[in-house]
Amino acid sequence: MIDLHTHTTASDGTDSPTELINKALSAGIQTLAITDHDSTSGWNEAISALRPPMSLVLGAEISTLTLNGVSVHILGLLFDGQDRDLQAMLSDSRDTRIPRMRKMIELLAADGIPITMEDVIAVTPPGATVGRPHLADALVNKEVIASRDEAFIDLLHNGSKYYVTHAAPTPEDAISQIRKAGGVAVIAHPFASRRGEIISTTTFSSLVAAGLNGIEINHRDHSQIEREQLTEIADELHLIKTGSSDYHGNGKLNALGENLTDPIQWERLESLANERRVVSK
Fold first, then answer.
1. What is the spatial distance between Cα 15 and Cα 256, in angstroms, rounded to a whole number?
2. N or C: which end of the chain has fewer CB within 10 A?
3. 228 within a domain of the structure (yes/no)
4. pLDDT number for residue 96
């Protein structure tokens, strides 16, 4: 079982890297990727917690914006974690999240929704990349909504009046930087319309030109029709097809291993990194 997209308390997950490793082992995951938002800070703990027979794929989910303002997430896997240019890109993205969060809180408060920055910080683990799921957790604590999922359906989706974009690289820039750092790049949940505006099929050509290696096809937020459309795109552009849980822990329905990557597809993807960086013990 291969799950290439998960999150920990290093970003907006609710499990520590150690807890994630233990849960994945119990779930029978054999190859697990840790892909926190714009952060590699959970890598060392995950490596320390790793036990046979699991292998660990180190990565990050990079937040990007197209030139016309569509939010796109790029999974960078197997890159050199010491690459200064890529780490600078991740750091810049994290730094823009605080002013973005303050603006979203202002918009919510203007409509009488009782929430403060202090409320959000209180539910954000130390050192974590602050994001909308933490705002959702604060709203749950305030009993404004019942769960993270409800928050994203009603208040925090990309098309919401409370949604605020933040400064981010273009998908092409992120893909290029991942490849320069020796890694592989997979676009995450590209047709997840429930999250807001999505990219068009023509966008994939520029992403491939930048070095895109794969498409996350099997994902909870993709309908069967969307999965079929993405499969056709992947086959036409000779891209690798992946499937992942996008697990975040408590508050979201995504379960470890609910969508998986075929071993043959994973073997192809791993071979495209400039070094063998899968961690095993």
1. 12
2. C
3. yes
4. 83
